[in-house]
Amino acid sequence: MSHRTDIQVRFSDLDMAGHVHNATYLTYFEQGRIDFFKGIADQEWDWKKKGVVLGRNEIDYVETIKLRDEVFIITKCEHVGNKSFTLSYELYKKKEGNDILCTKGRTILVCMNFETDESVPLFEEWKELLENSLQVIK
C-alpha cells in the first residue's frame, strides 16, 4: 500500500534563494502521512485516545524545488515493529515529462495511548494492513 499525494508549493514555503525551505519538507511528509492514514484508520478513529508520536525524522535532499514546480509525494510503509512502524517518503517534481526525485525521508512513528500517555503495542486494527503493505513494496 503506497499513497500518492499532490503537493502545492506555496510562496510561504520558500527561502530567500527561492527554493523550498529545508524545514518545509517535514510539512510535506506530514501531508503524505495524513493521506496514508486514511487507508488504515477510518473516520471513527479517535486520535485523541489512540494515535502516534514521531520518534524520528530523516531527510535526504537531492534536488531543489521551486515555486512553480509540480510536486507529489509517495508514502509507503517500510517497517513494522512491536510498538512502532516506519513510513518512507519520496518527493518528486515533474520536469520535461519525467519524475525527478527531489527528496527522500523516513519517519518512525510510535503508537500511543494518549489517555495513559504511554507507548503501546501496534494497534490491532492497523497491524494487518501495515504488514500487508510491506508485501506490496518488496
Structural topology:
Layout: E1 2-7, H1 24-37, E2 50-61, E3 71-80, E4 84-95, E5 98-113, E6 118-119, H2 124-137
Antiparallel strand pairs: 1-3, 2-5, 3-4, 4-5, 5-6
In short:
With 138 residues, the protein is an alpha+beta fold. The chain is 20% helix and 42% strand.
Structure description:
By secondary structure, the protein is an alpha+beta fold. It is built from two helices and six strands; from the N terminus they run E-H-E-E-E-E-E-H. The chain has helices spanning 24-37, 124-137, and strands at residues 2-7, 50-61, 71-80, 84-95, 98-113, 118-119. Strands 1, 2, 3, 4, 5 and 6 form a six-stranded antiparallel sheet that branches. The longest helix is centred in the N-terminal third of the chain and has 14 residues, at 24-37. It is elongated.
Class based on secondary structure composition and strand pairing: alpha+beta
Low-confidence parts? none
In DSSP terms (H or I, runs of 4 or more residues), the helix count works out at 2
Shape: elongated
Strand content: 35-45%
Radius of gyration: 16 Å
Mean pLDDT over the residues: 94
Q: Tell me the major beta sheet.
A: 6 strands, antiparallel
- SSE arrangement, N to C: EHEEEEEH
Count of DSSP E strands?
Answer: 6
The helical percent reads 10-25%
